[in-house]
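Final report, Chapter 2: Outcomes

The project's central promise was a pipeline that accepts a single protein chain and returns its three-dimensional structure in a standardized token representation, suitable for archiving and comparison. That pipeline is now operational. To close this chapter, we reproduce one record exactly as it appears in the project archive, with the input sequence first and the structure output second.
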Amino acid sequence: MSSINENTGLPHYVRFRDLRAAGIVDNWQQLFRLIEDYGFPSGQLLSPNVRAWDRDAVRQWLASRPSERKIVNPPRKQREHEAA
């Protein structure tokens, strides 16, 4: 997937505030944890204090994530005659 807008030829980037508004992260610590532990795109440093993420890379990462919490069935209790 290309991050280039076909109309303008310019890349689409999102900033931290966009990630927070989309409900992806709540704070910078969480974002750093996603990058280090879960393969979230590290983004591009545009200036010393400005980091941005390619919108399509973020979408691809989201699409690769599980959509639901895995259900783990508790162990079955052994019947009395099986335990003996």
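Archive annotation: The two ends are 60 Å apart (CA to CA).
This record, like all others produced under the grant, will remain available to the consortium after the project formally closes.
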